[in-house]
Design a protein that fits this description.
Length: 481
Amino acid sequence: MDFQNHTVEKIGGTSMSRLDELLKTLFVRDTDKETYNRIFVVSAFGGITDKLLEHKKTDEPGVYARFANEEDDHGWLDALSEVGHAMRAAHQDILAHQADRSDADDFVRDRVEGVRSCLMDLQRLCSYGHFRLSQHMMLTRELLSALGEAHSAYVAVLALRREGVNARFVDLSGWRDERELDLDARIRDGFDGVDLETELPIVTGYAQCAEGLMREFDRGYSEVTFSRIAALTAAREAIIHKEFHLSSADPKLVSGGRVRKLGHTNYDVADQLSNLGMEAIHPKAAKTLRHSDVPLRVTNAFEPHDPGTLIDDCPADTPGAEIVTGLDVRALELFEQDMVGVKGYDAAILEVLTRHGVRIVSKTSNANTITHYVDAPLRAVRRVEKDLNTLYPNAELAVRPMSIASVIGRDLKGLNVLGEGLKALAAADIEVLGAHQTTRSVDVQFAVPRESHDAAIGALHAALVPQEPAETPEAPAAKAA
């Protein structure tokens, strides 16, 4: 892959569902030089992966979850048929030409029926005692997930070719490929023969590889694929197109036009945002870009001429709060009078949380109390609670719904964010249940009642985020050949 002076760009599912609006703005530019020398990595159309796996927010079962339930042999078949209908409905709204619609329908039919046959064969095989369905579930999850990205990439290629663009479908999903390739080899194989000066590659966000992306990253795999492509091809810049700008707060929570685009921040801030569920990029993907010296830009897909926000390793010129955001959490508080001077309590709690897949956002402790603020469904937290009550029968365990409001910046030194934040929240009559500041001075967290989440973000933003326009750095110069 001898590419030079190109970008690797990623589009999420919500934006892909509005592909018809983006064709002549984001994808097709004024000149061929602007249109080409780009690589697009795409996610499945909005809602499709939820139907293939499970709903990301409600956990409503999709094909995967139904297939895993061996008591319901036909539920997954009906769910897969529903996926096929949803895929066809998605591209009907995007493809204006009947020939393209028919082509896309055939593609969906071939892939869906292929998956159906594969899963039926697997189910039949596992009816024998020597084979266990549980041993194949991760591969099943990957097979299903790949279906969504392959469909959206194929449809995008059809739509772009109708606009006169020489788009190329780069399918990294390993469909009917018997080879076992690692991720780098899969990417190199997919880009073999691609000419970026005359072709616009549209690449599946899922990449089938020996490492098994979903095993480690689950539904964050598309950003891992995106970042690895950027690193392997030595991209000038990696760009993520979202439906909004990376801003100092959610405009729905901070009114009066006081929210501002960040313009420039660093990967440290991006990591803090990820911890609070507001991912600019998956932390592992950010690590790949940092180590490869590829800067990241986050833009609004529907404002293609706005340079958005550049994320790199540069420190701030001056200290300042950059963004205020928050997350609903559950506070898991364990009080044990005999904890003082005894080692092992924290390790045992962490083991239980890890075993149940509960994500820790933050934690605090004192002589006899350890509190973990976790982001997990209540049923998972209840399982943790049950195990901890068994492990520590004399302890007092409480689970409370709360929210964390966090002030984040590349450098918060000397700003007294903790003190000023407490004053701002008190002035807004918001009870503070806890506060946490680390010595690195990149974020300060305030635990507040869940019903105060929105008001807390508004009060902290008004008190701590400066109102002058954010800097908007230009794209970095092209790398030397």
